[in-house]
Amino acid sequence: MLAVVSYLVKQTSSLPRELRKEIEMIQRNVELEAHLIDDLLDITRISSGKLELALEITDAHAAVRDAFEICAQDILAKNLSVDLDLRASKHRVLADPVRLHQVYWNIINNAVKFTPGGGKITIRSHNDHASDFILEVEDTGIGFEADALKHIFDAFEQGDRSITREFGGLGLGLTITKSLVDAHHGRLEGFS
Fold first, then answer.
1. 191: which DSSP letter?
2. Is the pLDDT of residue 149 over 70?
């Protein structure tokens, strides 16, 4: 279905304007559904212990930039200000590049999703005293209640029900992200 819709989107210049908008809406919905299915498959692999990593030396800064580029259109649409401050001198890490990209995309995408129009996102990297790679994503978004922190990485956890209605999703993104970071022997923390 996604292949057909993608083909139709490429042909939209020859279609009436109202039909173009409907095809673009169908594409967005199919992409969202595919993403939700991927999340469900990932959580199944993780919970059954079948997650496999293909580790190699990976440029973490390149993965951050790639993930940022995927979110660029949404950033522009919401008129968000982004400060990309990648200063870590040691940014080559042993990781599964596809999964690392998935982690960074999810974290940046969450910042974009939960930051109101005109807000600001800061993405910075540095090395700690042990030369470990640290990535921080800070935003002026809605934040979360202090008691939500103990459940924020739990599957299907989205806090207030109004979050689900307003922002959508299944509440699996941070669960998957945390599991991927744990599988890489890293650490993921949240603060509000």
1. -
2. no
CA dihedral 55, 60, 66, 68 (to 10 degrees): 130
C-alpha 102/C-alpha 130 separation (Å) is: 25
What is the percent of the chain where pLDDT is above 70?
Answer: 76
Question: What is residue 164's predicted lDDT score, i.e. its pLDDT?
Answer: 47
Q: Are strands 120-127 and 81-86 parallel, antiparallel or unpaired?
A: parallel
Q: Which residues are registered as beta bridge partners of 127?
A: 133
Cα three-residue angle 115-119-76, rounded to 5 degrees:
85
Nearest of 109, 101, 114 to residue 181 by alpha carbon: 101
Please give the sequence-ordered ranges of beta strands (E in DSSP) within the chain, or none if there are none: 56-59, 81-86, 92-95, 120-127, 133-139
Contact 185, 95 (CB under 8 A): no
| Predicted model pTM | 0.73
DSSP string, 95-132: E-HHHHHHHHHHHHHHHHHHSPTT-EEEEEEEE-TT--
